[in-house]
Structures are given as structure tokens and as C-alpha cells.
Amino acid sequence: MNRKWFHLWNIGRLRSKALDALALGRTMLLLAIGSLVFFILLGTGGMAGERLDNSPLPSMKGLAASLSGGLFKELLGMEVPHLPKSKEPSALSGGNVTSFVFQLLTSVNPGDPKSLLSREVPGMAADDAVLLRKGSGGVEGAPVDYHPGADEPAEATPAPTSGGSAGAQETPLPENSDAPAPSSAPAQDSGSADTELKRIMIYHSHPREAYNPLLSAKSDNPSSADPSKNVMMVGSYITQRLEKRGIGTLHSTVDYATRVADYNWNFSYKYSRVTVKAAMSENEGMSELIDIHRDSQRHDKTTTVIGGKSYAQVYFILGRSNKDWKKNEEFANKIHQLLEKRYPGVSRGIWGKSSGKGNNGEYNQSMSPNSVLIEVGGIDSTEAELKATSDILADAIADLYWSSHKAEKANTEGGTATAPAAQ
């Protein structure tokens, strides 16, 4: 009898274990199936996201770009005792490491509270700037766009004060028109035959971006139709410098809020595209298109001092929706590298931006591989700072121009092209 109960007890025990194993197996199977479905959906969503995201920077999502070159040097220094020590603060500081690890695990940048919401609010991260090339002027802050609270009212535009071919396209531009506008006024000859051919165009998609010191104001969003108080002044300085260097330069001083019927700020790049298209159709040799803006950050984030002289810093901006962005990046990088070599601290680097409020995703850069948007200074930059930066920026552009056109000019004239020296 005891043996019978013993066998029954063993059978019951084995049955209980078998049921437990089956339950555990079923649970594991459900978890495996659920994980498989999750990763399939995740992969499908990722593939769909890649197709929908026309960004040409899939491997440059900000985190990788934020790694300091000093970090790798310090890591090497741990193994190579005689590697020269950098005078810069350690990239392996507690704050840097903590910030990097936190961003790696959460995709949230502790220095940018907006990144916490941008993953949850559709469209909030659409215009996030992505660092492509670092500038010695610092990368702790991305460029900040100019966003007027409402469409800017039309105002009477004072007479332009720019050099070169100022006043280009001074007639109204239809909002939806791609037709060329009337011819621009001829530029004054600076003594070089080359200035008769317009090779470079300086223009402004946001011409009313202004500077507080020029307005004697303290605004977070200074705006003005006066070309002596907004980015047109910077364009004038650059144009005059390029003309002195013997390069024909066209400067557009169109104030779209005044010239365009039913003006809408959100169509800014649509308006400027018409201007650029018309200028290119009238100037066959025009190859370089530079859209001058200003940043919307304060003075401490847009200024540097070199040799006791204060300079407005610059950002180079590329449109991430432009399929040929690499050619534009190559052009921008040549200017950037010249500034880095001659005036380290002036450039805040090259940044890629996608479509957002008030732009077309490519900043009209598909019109020429030698096209770039450059932000010069911030809302608090002084005239002296803007003039100083305009001169060195124009010299970099001029040197690049003469270098790239030397062979062309030599073939045309049967001799060696000589670039006029900066005055």
C-alpha cells in the first residue's frame, strides 16, 4: 500500500513538474514571439523612417558629431605616454562623460531641454541643426533661427547703401512667379576688368534681420527695413571687399516685405529663389551664391576676440533636403578652413538643417554647388564687429575664387591669373 502511494506521489510530482515546464515554455514562446513582432515592427518603422527622412546625414545625428577630437587624443594618451598634452580642458571630465552617456542612453541632450519634447511632439525636431564640421569658435550651441511673431508689415525702404551692384531686382516680385525680373543696375568698375562679369551673388532671404546696436535697441528679435541697420549692411561690406579684390559681385537688396504683394514670411526662400534665378539667367558666369543672415543668439555666443580685436562669429548652414549637399559642403568647408587657419575662433562650424518654418529645406542651394547660407554675428553684434568679420570672410571667399579660377583665367588670357591683394 505504501509502495502504491509512493508511485502515485512520484507520478503526481512528475506531472506537476511537466505542467510547470510547459507553462514556462509557453511563456517563453509568447515572449519570443512578442519580441520577434516588436523587432519586426521596429525594423519596418526604421526603414519607413529612412525613406521618409530625406536627410542626407543618416550617420550624423548630432551625437556622433558632438564627440570632441580631444576625447580620442586623451584615450590614445592613456596608452602612449609621450603623446603631447593638450592645453584645452579635459574631454573626459565628469560633466562631459555624464552628458554623453545620458544622451547615448536616452537620446536627450541635457544641454537642450527641447530635445526631451522633440521626440514626442511631431515636427518639433524637424529643423534641428546637425553639426557637420566643428569650428574652433565653439560647438556648445547650434544656430538659432529668426522667427518673426507675425508677417512683417510693409514699410518704406530707404535708399540702399551697398556697394557693387546694389539695388538688384528693385521691382515687385510676384509671389508665385519664376519669370526673370528686370535687369539690375550696373556695378561701378573698381579698376579690374573682371568686375564687369558678375561671378558672385550676395543676397538675403531674410533681409530684415537686424542688429540691436545699429537700432539702439534691446530686442530679442530686432527687425528693420533700413539696409544700414540689417544684414544688407553686411552684404554691402562683403560686396565692396570682393569688388576691391577684382571680383564682379552682384548684391541684391530686395526688401520682400515691401516689394511682394501679399507678402508671407514663410515664403522667404521662394521669393529669394526668384531673385537668384533671374540674376543667374542674366549673368552666365555667376557661379557662387551666398545668402547672408544673422543668428538670433546673444552677444556672448556670437562674438570672439582675436589679437585684441572683436569679431562677429559665423555659422555655415547647409540644406539637408538638397540631394547634392556634399558639393555645397565641400564649397562651404573651403571657406571654413581658410577662416580656421587665419582667424581661429571666428567660425562656429558647418551645420546641416532640414525643412522647418520659413525655409524650403535646401535654402535654394540646389541652384549651384557653390552655394551656402552664412550667418554673420548675432542680434547684439556691433558695426565694428560686423565690418571686421565681413572683411575676413570676403577675403576667404576671394582667395577661394581666385584659386579655383586661376586655370580658367590663365587659359582665357594666355597667362597666369594674379589675384588682387586684400587692401
From TrEMBL:
Residues 139-193 are annotated as: Disordered. The chain crosses the membrane at residues 21-42. InterPro entries: Spore_II_P. Pfam families: SpoIIP. The keyword Membrane applies. Keywords: Membrane, Transmembrane, Transmembrane helix. Gene3D superfamilies: Zn-dependent exopeptidases. Residues 177-193 have a biased composition (Low complexity). The keyword Transport does not apply. This is Stage II sporulation protein p.
